[in-house]
């Protein structure tokens, strides 16, 4: 028998608990191979599958509870930390928010099977004020299904898994080196893509101090809030004069965005990744005067610069996107927008 399987036979529950716990805490160490191997051993009668499933479920649930309480008590700081260390800081966080917004708590179950999202959902649920009992119920179901599905796959394909492990064992440490090399290459590629994206617009950024000075001087910057609907619901205050549009709306309504004004984009993700991506898209569509806000809304809050409430779930009225609209930041504009918001209600 392969040495890996022998090790798993001797320390099965402990290994499965540790592997799933570490994976759910966000470390890039997949637990799926261990779950598949446990299933193969269960098919051979060498492991008690209910014990293996319980160990995997408890490991996943405890890790998720840790993130849940961190999200409850640390909120946006925890999400910002995960955003910083994520290989896909923009799409990963935004996809998680979209799933949670669209499907609610059932999205917690679905996220278990989507790489990169399972670690983000628990702190997001905690930050959204989900009750502990409700979270444990749905996350427990998701953890049970996650471990059970891969253990079952290991049972169904036990022979094929044994053959694969046998081939890898014959190749020795060289195969392990190749796997680690491919993983390192993937991580390096993602890091390079991220740095290249940020460097393309590094010189075009605008600081919160510069934006504030422009507004105070009576200039007319067009400010777009790119945060997700979930973030808007949790923190409805926006930068003074800003209009909210999702990234999809920007793509669909880019023709309504004025070409003769400075376009300032901001989000809540560190390094302004969302803003940088949207800025590149607008550049390709012929809108050249576009600049991401350095530090996003978080730095604007830290400076205690003026903010105003927005309409929860609302988007930018089309007439405010035209060239004939009154300059943002003026009393006339704010009164017009306020009247529009009241009519929308």
Write up this protein.
Helices cover 63% and strands 6% of the residues. It has 345 residues and is mainly α. The protein folds into two domains: 3-199, no CATH class; 202-344, Rhodanese-like domain (Oxidized Rhodanese, domain 1, 3-Layer(aba) Sandwich), CATH 3.40.250.10. Helix 1 packs across helix 2 and helix 1 (3-24) packs parallel to helix 3.
Which sheet architecture does the biggest sheet show? 4 strands, parallel
Number of strands: 6
Overall geometric form: elongated
Nearest-integer average pLDDT? 76
Strand order of the largest sheet: 3-1-4-5
Number of domains: 2
Radius of gyration: 24 Å
Assembly status: single chain
Order of helices and strands: HHHHHHHHHHHEHEEHEHEHEH
Classify the beta-strand content into a percent band.
5-15%
Distance between the termini: 69 Å
Low-confidence stretches: 312-345
Structural class: mainly alpha
Number of helices: 16
* Helical residue percent band: 55-70%
